[in-house]
Amino acid sequence: MSEYSEALRVLGFPKGAQPTEKELKRCMERDALKVLQKPRMSAAYTVLMQYTSSRKSKQAAPPANNWMVPVPLLREQPETPPTKKRRTGSPDPESPEKVQTHPAARIFKCLDEELSRLGQKRWVGDIDWSEGSPQVSANDVIGARYPGSAPLEKLRNVAEAGAGQQLTMELLKQVLAMSSGLLSARWVWIEGVPDLLISQNKEILASASARSARFGEEIALFQTRGNFPSYALPPTPNEELDVVCLDLTALFGAADKFLAECRLLRRPAMPLAEVR
Question: Residue 96: how many CB atoms within 10 A of its CB?
Answer without folding.
Answer: 12
